[in-house]
């Protein structure tokens, strides 16, 4: 039974954890989740040490707060905020009052509550790093499922040996890693733009330059005997990532949907499908 992140983060891997973990090695000393996002993969990994990294400092700071706060106290604070702002699926004014107060104070518990009531639970910032997701009328709320996910997530954060870093992938120190470790990368996808990688959110965007830098970094890891696993897509909505397809031929390709594993990249309906892969060097 996998733990689900309480954050509905774009590109989250919860639904495909089984095939991803089937491709992971059984013995992992240090697991580095380079683009942690909602941290669905890292929180479920069995490893001696788990490093959770993301360039978005608010995510990392929120996870650190989850780790450092007794779960009962955290739930009390959340419910207090819901009560103070009279948050419901219909109270738009309460949501925007909370959003305004968060953008003024930077209170991390308020940020989490905002994600619960935001449209599609989206975490979105503007160039000034102000939270700007609209209200999720009649759809979003802090419900029993999110409470259960949050409780399990926090308990795992507090039980496992998880360390947090807030770095760009090019700035992380990989020098102490060796053949017993695993570096997992789930970067923004070059051929699909989420609101976290369009360059308009005050954080680094993701273009071909970043894609090439990551692939070069993984090649260097391979030369240094460090295991890696890269989540990505070959095809999406009629687009193909030729750079990735060509690079991947050097390594092992695991198709998340195994029906595409024998397609040899030449199937007729590829315009209509997303072909998701995990590329490993072991």
UniProtKB/TrEMBL annotation:
SUPFAM superfamilies named among the record's database cross-references: S-adenosyl-L-methionine-dependent methyltransferases
Keyword Chaperone attached: no
Taxonomic superkingdom: Bacteria
Reactions performed catalytically: a 2'-deoxyadenosine in DNA + S-adenosyl-L-methionine = an N(6)-methyl-2'-deoxyadenosine in DNA + S-adenosyl-L-homocysteine + H(+)
First-level EC class: transferase
Keywords assigned: Methyltransferase, S-adenosyl-L-methionine, Transferase
MF term (GO), any: site-specific DNA-methyltransferase (adenine-specific) activity
Record InterPro entries: Ade_MeTrfase_dom_2, DNA_methylase_N6_adenine_CS, M_m6A_EcoRV, MeTrfase_D12, SAM-dependent_MTases_sf
GO biological process: DNA restriction-modification system; methylation; mismatch repair
Pfam family, one: MethyltransfD12
EC annotation from Swiss-Prot or TrEMBL: 2.1.1.72
Transferase among keywords: yes
Family as reported in the entry's similarity comment: Belongs to the N(4)/N(6)-methyltransferase family.
PANTHER family: DNA ADENINE METHYLASE (PTHR30481:SF3)
Protein name: Site-specific DNA-methyltransferase (adenine-specific)
Organism of provenance: Lacrimispora amygdalina
Taxonomic classification: Bacteria, Bacillati, Bacillota, Clostridia, Lachnospirales
